[in-house]
Structure formats: C-alpha cells, structure tokens
From TrEMBL:
PANTHER family: LARGE RIBOSOMAL SUBUNIT PROTEIN UL2M, RIBOSOMAL PROTEIN L2. This is 50S ribosomal protein L2. Keywords: Ribonucleoprotein, Ribosomal protein. It comes from Schinkia azotoformans LMG 9581. GO terms for biological process: cytoplasmic translation. The gene is rplB. Residues 42-105 form the Large ribosomal subunit protein uL2 RNA-binding domain. It holds the Pfam family Ribosomal_L2_N. One of its GO terms (cellular component) is ribonucleoprotein complex. Belongs to the universal ribosomal protein uL2 family. The keyword Ribonucleoprotein applies. GO terms for molecular function: RNA binding; structural constituent of ribosome.
Length: 108
C-alpha cells in the first residue's frame, strides 16, 4: 500500500498523508455481490426528519461481505482488491479452489 505525502501548503496539510490507491483494481465489481441501497436521508419509518443535515451524496451499492469466513480448509486466492464506498477499509474478492462462493472479505 503506497502512501501519498501532501505538500505543506497550509497548516492542516503539514505532515498529512493518505493512501494513493495504487493497489485498487480498476475492473468493475462482481455484480452478484452487489445489492441496491435506499437512502433514508435522516428520516425514520414515518417519514419525518429525525437527524438533521443528512442526505444527498452519490448513489452507492452495498457489497456483500463474508465477515465470518465460514469456509475452512479450502485453498483460496485473492482475485482483486477493490474500493468499498460504504466503509474505510478496502475489500478483497476471494476465489476458492473448489469453485465455491466468492464473497468479499475485508482486505486488512
């Protein structure tokens, strides 16, 4: 993972670093692992605004992630490392040798 170092143009940028996203693959995500998300924009089930200043933003799709990693003793390979708009961690597409399911996993 590459580190991008910013030039100190302002006091806030001094000693600031970030990811350069060099390891992220540019291919499209696996469509079978994408689910549409509906935005609530700070509204509850009755439609009233309960949290102010929420809403807007770019449309996002949820990536199905296997947090439990229930597949044991099967050889697996990381096919791609992708960007996930719903969390700060990157995600990895796992391909199993037996041709089983290919869920995303956190790439940490």
């Amino acid at each position: 993972m590459g580190i991008k170092v910013y030039k100190p143009t302002t006091n806030g940028r001094r000693n600031m670093t970030g990811s350069d996203f060099a390891e992220i693959t540019t291919s499209t995500p696996e469509k079978s692992l994408l689910v549409s998300m509906s935005k609530t924009a700070g509204r509850n089930n009755t439609g009233r605004i309960t949290v102010r200043h929420h809403g807007g933003g770019h449309k996002r799709k949820y990536r199905m992630i296997d947090f439990k990693r229930t597949t044991d003793n099967v050889v697996a390979k990381v096919a791609t490392i992708e960007y996930d708009p719903n969390r700060t961690a990157n995600i990895a597409l796992i391909v199993y040798a037996n041709g089983g399911c290919q869920p995303y996993s956190r790439a940490t």
